[in-house]
């Protein structure tokens, strides 16, 4: 059910660029939930998305739960920093760059997250890779990870695909391992905490474009994988004990088999090819928190769908951007009193989780993540969306990020 929410607020300020000591955060404020706790489970998730020529990826629709809001500007109030401002530099951008450009080069870090919605159907939203110790962290909106419709824990079969385009996965597919959000969002659905960080396993490589993704069974002891899946790996022989561990996950593409030859049974599983760590492949944005409101931001996302007047503005197939200064906002219906807004024509479908980047360096395509889209609004009642809103990134957000940023995921290949 979509909520109609009043929001409002205006403020101005400047980004603090100094790197400072981060605020302490109580562990009780962080909620951590496993998404795919074993490599076998993660491989089965990949199988679901790649099966039948990536039919579930291609057929997925944008996730627009709770993204439409009614905005009303007010001239007082707004978010306040709960400690000193601070920044975390982006991957590869630890040294400052002063180069500037008028053209907007789109970041490689942005992509789509895919998952099963509460209707049991495949959906997608927007997310971005961010800096972390093991280069394995994704940031998005909380309700692109947590099931607020049925009050379940997390959305199923969660994966991140940077640069996704019509079934193509240029840098691989990354399965979510563990999700982190604020306790108040997980328990109370507090809109001020509608953000999430997800650790992901190393990526898995996709088959060549245009090649069928069905693989043949091994016809003998030394058989190799069939046409199409060679870029994902190949068959390997294992013990019966290992083979039995895969039985419960032989759901989508038949990634186990046994061959009887010369009176003996041989057991095989499909070994996937490792695409490497997310941050090594596409980089990772930095993070800025406790910033003054009013700094210009770039918003990068995959908006889709129409405006209220029926104008179909975006297809959701390619990454888009908007630009503007942030202002303070609130949404009492979701207990959100410390949001920020920015003027943007993004429509709600697909824009969920779009990254808000301050200090974006066009030459390096890197900046500091300072917001994620959780809603869009028509503020002047002309039936066109003109505003996007995000939680204000404060010290409590940094606490959630800190709980996730140093955790290792590893390979599932």
UniProtKB/TrEMBL annotation:
Organism: Acrocarpospora macrocephala
InterPro entries, per database record: Peptidase_S1_PA (IPR009003), Peptidase_S1_PA_chymotrypsin (IPR043504)
Signal peptide coordinates: 1-26
Superkingdom of source: Bacteria
Protein's recorded name: Peptidase
Keyword annotations of the record: Signal
């Amino acid at each position: 059910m979509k909520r109609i929410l009043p929001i409002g607020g205006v403020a101005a300020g400047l980004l603090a660029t100094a790197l400072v000591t981060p605020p302490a955060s109580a562990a009780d404020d962080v909620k951590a939930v496993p998404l795919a706790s074993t490599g076998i489970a993660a491989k089965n998730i990949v199988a679901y998305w790649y099966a039948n020529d990536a039919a579930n990826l291609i057929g997925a629709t944008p996730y627009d739960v709770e993204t439409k809001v009614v905005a009303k500007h007010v001239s007082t109030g707004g978010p306040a920093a709960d400690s000193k401002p601070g920044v975390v530099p982006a991957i590869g951008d630890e040294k400052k760059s002063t180069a500037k450009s008028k053209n907007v080069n789109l970041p490689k870090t942005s992509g789509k997250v895919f998952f099963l919605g509460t209707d049991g159907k495949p959906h997608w939203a927007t997310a971005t890779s961010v800096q972390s110790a093991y280069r394995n962290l994704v940031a998005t909106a909380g309700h692109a990870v947590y099931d607020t419709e049925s009050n379940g824990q997390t959305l199923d079969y969660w994966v991140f695909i940077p640069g996704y385009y019509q079934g193509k996965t240029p840098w691989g597919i990354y399965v979510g391992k563990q999700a982190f959000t604020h306790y108040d969002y997980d328990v109370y659905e507090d809109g001020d905490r509608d953000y999430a960080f997800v650790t992901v396993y190393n990526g898995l490589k996709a088959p060549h474009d245009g090649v069928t993704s069905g693989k043949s069974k091994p016809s003998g002891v030394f058989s190799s994988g069939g046409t199409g899946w060679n870029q994902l790996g190949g068959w390997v022989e294992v013990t019966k004990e290992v083979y039995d561990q895969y039985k419960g996950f032989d759901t989508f593409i038949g990634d186990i088999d046994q061959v009887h030859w010369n009176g003996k049974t041989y057991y095989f599983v499909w070994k996937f090819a490792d695409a490497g760590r997310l941050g090594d492949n596409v980089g990772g944005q930095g993070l800025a928190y406790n910033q003054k409101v009013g700094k210009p931001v770039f918003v990068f996302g995959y908006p889709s769908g129409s405006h209220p007047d029926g104008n179909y503005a975006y297809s959701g197939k390619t990454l888009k951007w908007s630009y503007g200064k942030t202002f303070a906002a609130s949404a009492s219906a979701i207990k959100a009193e410390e949001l920020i807004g920015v003027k943007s024509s993004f429509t709600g479908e697909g824009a969920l989780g779009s990254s808000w980047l301050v200090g974006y360096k066009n030459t390096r395509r890197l900046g500091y993540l300072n917001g994620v889209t959780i809603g869009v609004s028509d503020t002047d009642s002309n039936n066109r969306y003109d505003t996007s809103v995000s939680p204000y990134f404060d010290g409590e957000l940094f606490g959630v990020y800190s709980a996730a940023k140093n955790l290792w995921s590893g390979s599932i290949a």
